[in-house]
Amino acid sequence: MNLKKYFVYIEDGKNLFKIAVPAETAEAAEKYCEGNGEIIKVKEITSEVQIAAEAVAYALKDRNFNETEIDLVVRTLTSTGIAE
Q1: What does the alpha-carbon distance between residue 74 and residue 79 come to, in Å, rounded to a whole number?
Q2: Which residues pair with 11 in a beta bridge?
Q3: DSSP state of 61
């Protein structure tokens, strides 16, 4: 499964929120946010937001994750296309 990255802009009657969502399509990102207010806009940000798998691994190690936990998180992010 290859996921893209989206910002979903939601208005709840008082505030406007920008939520980062991984999803296969814009429609799936919108569906993920349903029930939280009026969806104003969905914007793909895949090429704009880059996540380095190595940086994630370092951050997790810094927070005392063990090697198995780090491997699972990093492999999940890279196999879905969220991290490179």
Answers
A1: 8
A2: 16, 38
A3: H
pTM of this prediction exceeds 0.85: yes
The DSSP-derived string for 10-54 is EE-SS-EEEEEEEESSHHHHHHHHTTSSEEEEEEE-TTT----HH
Report the alpha-carbon distance of residue 56 to residue 1 in Å, rounded.
Answer: 20
d(C-alpha 68, C-alpha 46), whole Å:
27
Task: Return the number of other C-beta atoms located less than 10 Å from residue 84's C-beta.
Answer: 10
**If the chain, 84 residues long, is cut into consecutive pieces of 10 residues, what is the mean pLDDT of each piece?**
96 96 98 96 97 98 98 97 95
Measured distance CA(42)–CA(21) in Å, rounded: 10
